[in-house]
Every structure is written in C-alpha cells, then in structure tokens.
Design goal:
With 103 residues, the protein is an all-alpha fold. The chain has one domain. It is built from 2 helices and no strands. 7% of the residues are buried.
Length: 103
C-alpha cells in the first residue's frame, strides 16, 4: 500500500505542472485569438491586447514545461540515457610518476 501512495504522489507531481502548462497555453491562445477577433470587429475601433493574461499564461507554460522537461532530463541522466556531454564530469585519475631514466 505504501508503494501505491508513493507512486500516486509522484504522478501528481508530474500532472499538476502539466495542467499548469496546458492552462498557460490556453491563456496565451485566448489572448491572441481575442485580439485578432477584435481586429475584425467593426464595433471595436481600437482593440487592445491582453498583455497580463498573455504573460501569466507564458509564465505558467514555461514553468510547467520546464518542470516536466527537467524531471525527464534528470531521470534519463540518472539512467545514463543522455549524450556524453550531459553526463556528470568525473575527475581523471592522476598520472603515474616517471622515474629519472625516462621509463
């Protein structure tokens, strides 16, 4: 039972940022679509862009995608699935000392 609860909590830790990213995308989309809908409407002579809604949506989208992407990256790094440039650097072993004869 303890394993099931732990997996449920882990799943929620991924679902909540995913929902935040989806909601942020919807806020950005609505801000852009409403602006273009008002451009075509003759009743609104000077439409305005909903910058606050767009920026909040952008921040939610960026935070959600960044969290999920970072989680996937660090999980793959732990399992050694990433390219060599992303693997943690290990110090080189010290060189063996040569004696005076050059051997």
């Amino acid at each position: 039972m303890r394993q099931i609860v732990a997996r449920l909590i882990a799943m929620l830790l991924l679902v909540i940022p995913g929902i935040a990213a989806a909601y942020g995308f919807l806020l950005m989309k609505d801000a852009v679509y409403d602006y273009f809908a008002d451009l075509g409407n003759v009743d609104v002579p000077n439409p305005h862009f909903a910058w606050l809604s767009f920026l909040i949506g952008f921040l939610l989208f960026l935070a959600g995608v960044g969290f999920v992407g970072g989680w996937i990256f660090f999980r793959d790094r732990k399992r050694n699935y990433v390219a060599s440039r992303f693997r943690p650097k290990r110090p080189r072993p010290p060189r063996a000392e040569r004696d005076e004869s050059g051997k």
